[in-house]
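From the methods appendix. Each design record in this collection lists the tokenized structure first, followed by the designed amino acid sequence. Records were kept in a plain field format so they could be parsed without special tools. The example shown here is representative of the layout used throughout.

RECORD:
FOLD TOKENS (305 positions):
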């Protein structure tokens, strides 16, 4: 039997890998990012949520007036369902959850305080408010029932509401342990199989040596402040890192690489001027790469092979 040394085997593997890359480049068999659409209303993008029916909810806030607006697009096509929507309460408002194309909003009990107040159910497709209540506070939704509560002098009392009408279904009493157990179960069973979120890679981390090697072929390791956030999707590697500028502030840089060919697909500056590193600037949903640029612009790319 022919026995090859480790050095020879590594050389053969590297030669075959390079031959494969040369073929991919020659035949143009590369991952492509096609810009599908973009969004900006010149306000700061505060939050992004995707529904189970492929609708992207974009929450934006005006930093001067503090008013909040909501836009909804089909995340795959970019088709606008509604744009710059506002409720009567234009400032002290947020989203609890989206369930079966209904957005459950909350108000705030006091300005500048985190405590929530009330529930407002808004149907995305009809663009109409379904119901609202000031009696209950939202906890979670499960099997078409809203689990809600009332604050008591000591503790809480729990209830279930019809998620479409807000009608009271059942008084569940004050069994906090039972409610908490169900709430944790709902969280654990949430389906994120259509998503890819960034992972962290630090300069001294050698556990992902191939990924690390690829990344630092394209950027100078000494430029990296902290770590690199990356997603590896098949042979598409996307990542961003922060670099300290001469003025003492930071810039955030984004790269997309075809791993097989080791070819750069695109690169651009995500944030040209930030006081501190900004995490979670991109994610992948199905075959769409969603990128937040300069805090006010959303870029959506279709991943094509």
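DESIGN:
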């Amino acid at each position: 039997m022919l026995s090859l040394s480790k050095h020879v085997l590594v050389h053969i593997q590297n030669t075959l890998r390079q031959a494969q890359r040369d073929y991919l480049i020659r035949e143009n068999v590369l991952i492509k990012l096609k810009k599908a659409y973009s969004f900006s209303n010149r306000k700061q993008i505060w939050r992004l949520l995707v529904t189970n029916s492929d609708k992207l909810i974009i929450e934006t806030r005006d930093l001067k007036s503090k008013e909040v607006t909501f836009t909804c697009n089909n995340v795959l096509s970019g088709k606008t369902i509604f744009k710059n929507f506002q409720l009567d309460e234009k400032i002290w408002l947020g989203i609890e959850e989206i369930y079966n194309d209904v957005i459950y909003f909350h108000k705030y009990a006091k300005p500048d305080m985190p405590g929530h107040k009330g529930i407002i159910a808004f149907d995305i497709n009809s663009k109409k408010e379904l119901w609202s209540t000031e009696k209950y506070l939202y906890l979670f939704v499960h099997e078409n029932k809203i689990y809600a509560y009332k604050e008591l002098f000591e503790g809480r009392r729990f209830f279930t509401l019809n998620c479409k009408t807000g009608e009271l279904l059942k008084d569940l009493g004050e069994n906090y342990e039972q409610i908490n157990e169900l709430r944790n179960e709902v969280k654990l069973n949430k389906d994120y199989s259509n998503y890819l979120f960034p992972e962290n890679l630090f300069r001294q981390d050698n556990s992902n040596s191939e990924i690390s090697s690829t990344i630092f072929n394209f950027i100078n390791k000494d430029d990296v402040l902290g770590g690199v956030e990356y997603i590896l999707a098949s042979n598409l590697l996307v990542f961003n890192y922060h670099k300290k500028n001469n003025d003492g502030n930071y810039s955030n840089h984004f790269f997309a690489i075809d791993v097989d060919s080791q070819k750069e697909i695109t690169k651009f500056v995500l944030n040209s001027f930030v006081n501190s590193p900004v995490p979670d600037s991109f994610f992948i949903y199905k075959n769409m790469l969603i990128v937040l640029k300069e805090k006010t612009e959303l870029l959506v790319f279709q991943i094509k092979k």
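APPENDIX NOTE: The radius of gyration is 24 Å.
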